[in-house]
Amino acid sequence: MTARPTRRTASGRSRTAVAGATAVAAALLLTSCGDQTDAAVARREAVKNRDTSAPLFTLLPKDIQEKALIQVGSDITYKPVEFRSDGAIEGIDPDLAAALSKELGVKLNFNNATFDTLMGGMKSKRYDIAMSAMTDTRERQQGIDSSTGKKIGEGVDFIDYLNVGVSIYTQKGKTQGIDGWDALCGKKIAVQRGTVSHDLAKDQSKKCEKNGEQPIAMEAFDNDSEAQTRLRTGGVDAVSSDYPVAAYAVKVSGHGNDFQMVGGAPVKAAPYGIAVPKGSEKLRDALKAALERAIKSGAYAKVLDKWDVKEAAVPEAKLNGGS
């Protein structure tokens, strides 16, 4: 059988030779440029900007020192604690994280997730920590599901950094007699799934039924923005969320014309904590030391003043102060 002749390009080179040269050129390009994904670029930038002379750099675990990144799980839809504005991540938590970064010499890199997946994300090591207006509770410390009482993990340690309570707000001028938690029996309320507000609503609903009243009709959403939208369109009678979030929503939504706060002072005052998985004591202690330095230097107070939450300040970085 006669061999089929090799086809030539206009330049006279065989197609095989051209394909081979192209593959080699592509390989060389990848080798010289490296991985160009956003995550890879972020990792290279973090190493490039690592500050080994930072006061607390040597306190960090070796793997964190090497990658120069602390991966943070966060629900970035919770104004003013963390949210996106023109593509950038802003808010109380990102600003406090920046202050901690200066002390540690590495970047705290925020990754968006729904709030109820953060504990699992730390367990699977997708995130090193969680910083997302997470209330420090005994159940979370012990890895217990507050709804079922069942053990779901090893739990976390908390570095407490804000002390806040829970508030209720309604459509402006349409309170429907809601002046506190006891007035929610038979009403519809929206909450963010897995939060203290969600737990309080469940407890109050049981109390309503025990007293012979109608239970609370609850709608739980992945994020607080969805709950606000539901209230704005009249789908529910009220929303409950942490005081800083409720106050911000009342202030800015519809230029202050959409919502109003009801029920008086926030209830269930408890600390927000930076959550660190059990077994990560070295990272936990470095973060706690960084917060202590930020408090003493005044960097912490500047962040709270910026976001008008200075009444929520803690005098010191406390470990597992929730109950």
Protein described:
- This protein is an alpha/beta fold and about 325 residues long.
- It has helices spanning about 15-35, 40-50, 60-65, 90-105, 120-125, 140, 195-210, 225-230, 245-250, 280-295, 300-305, and strands at about 70-75, 85, 90, 105-110, 130, 155-170, 190, 215-220, 240, 260-275, 320.
- The protein folds into 2 domains: about 40-165 and about 270-320, 3-Layer(aba) Sandwich (D-Maltodextrin-Binding Protein, domain 2); about 165-270, D-Maltodextrin-Binding Protein, domain 2 (3-Layer(aba) Sandwich), CATH 3.40.190.10.
- The strands form 3 sheets. Strands 6, 7, 8, 9, 10 and 11 form a 6-stranded mixed beta sheet that branches.
- α7 links the parallel β7 and β8.
- α4 packs across α10 and α4 packs antiparallel against α11 (about 300-305).
- The longest helix has 19 residues, at about 15-35.
- Mean pLDDT is about 90; it is low at about 1-20 and about 25-30.
- Keywords: Signal.
- InterPro entries: Solute-binding_3/MltF_N.
CATH-assigned homologous superfamily of the largest domain = Periplasmic binding protein-like II
Our count of domains comes out at 2
Estimated structural class: alpha/beta
The CATH C-level class name of the largest domain? Alpha Beta
Most strands sheet: 6 strands, mixed
User: Mean pLDDT across all residues, rounded?
Assistant: 88
CATH domain fold name of the largest domain: D-Maltodextrin-Binding Protein, domain 2
Q: How much helix is in the residues?
A: 25-40%
Low-confidence stretches: 1-18, 26-32
Q: If you compute it from the alpha carbons, what radius of gyration comes out, rounded to the nearest whole angstrom?
A: 25 Å
The total of helices stands at: 11
Order of helices and strands: HHHEEEHEHEHEEHEHEHEHHE
CATH architectural type of the largest domain:
3-Layer(aba) Sandwich
Shape: globular
Beta-strand portion reads 15-25%
